[in-house]
Amino acid sequence: MKATAPTLGFHNLTLGYGRHPAVHHITGEVARGELLAIVGPNGAGKSTLLKGIVGELKPLSGRLDLDGLTKRDIAYLPQVIEIDRSFPISVFDCVAMGLWRQIGALRGLDARGRDHVIGALGTVGLIELADRPVGTLSGGQFQRVLFARLLLQDAKLILLDEPFRAVDTKTVADLIRLIERWHREGRTVLAALHDMEQVRTHFPRTLLLAREVVAWGETRAVLTPANLAKSREITEAFDAHAPVCEREETRWSA
How far apart are the C-alpha atoms of 5 and 24, rounded to whole Å? Predict the structure, then answer.
């Protein structure tokens, strides 16, 4: 049985850039072992929320509780457009970076470490490409490399930002199986997604954002036509240059 204690707690949390809020007044909890989709229109604040959780952005107001998790416990996969693929590194070495927190950046891989890398490559079907430069890979192959690296991080909390963007159908299916495996293992997985059918099929719970919480709970109750329309309206009307505002805390749970 999976624990139900919260992994993440949001307490009237506002995040942004400079002093301008990008996502604001988020209150709610993510249970340990939960598989949660984060959805919303472009500009709804999905990436901002993930960056706040991983510590790349500090709260403008409110707070975020990680229930004792440290950076070592968190694996974060940003959008592929934010990743520089021009660096001359092989597939094997890129995946091996997932072990750095365990062995240190200055230590070489021992035989056990190499076995772990080969095992991760086997899981994502890329053993034959181990020596190829990452810059020569297709979008789907490169995303498999990044998921293999996540496997080696062995994290309790996994954050994925648009992990299926510009990825072929076969790769999407394989990566979703990996996500579902992490869920079965009791890891907490949050994924920012835009394909609502993927969310309805594979994610039991959903947070619908429009710079603020529109709905949060069981996926079928969240992804209603009315909620989706409301999220578009709020996002389109949002003033990106508005100052941080004060609002009484509203807790979401279902």
Answer: 24
Q: Is residue 39 part of a domain?
A: yes
Judged against a pLDDT cut of 90, whether residue 166 lies above it is answered with no
The residue behind tokens 């039991």 is: 204
Closest of 120, 184, 112, 108 to residue 146, by C-alpha: 120
Tokens found for residue 187: 């890891």
How many domains does one find in the chain?
A: 1
pLDDT digits (tens, 9 = 90+) for 171-214: 999 999 999 999 999 999 999 999 999 999 999 999 999 999 99
- Residues 133-163 have pLDDT tens digits of 999 999 999 999 999 999 999 999 999 999 9
What is the longest distance spanned by two Cα atoms in the chain? 56
Two tokens at 241?
Answer: 């240059």
Determine which helix (DSSP H) or strand (DSSP E) holds 188, and give its type and residue range: strand 188-192
Sheet holding 157-161, edge to edge: 74-77, 157-161, 188-192, 35-39, 205-209, 213-218
Q: List alpha helices for the chain, DSSP H.
A: 46-54, 91-96, 100-103, 111-123, 139-153, 169-184, 196-202, 219-222, 225-237
Is residue 27 within 8 Å of residue 10, measured between CB atoms?
yes
What is the DSSP pairing of strand 205-209 with strand 213-218?
Answer: antiparallel
Note down the domain range covering 197. 1-69+192-254
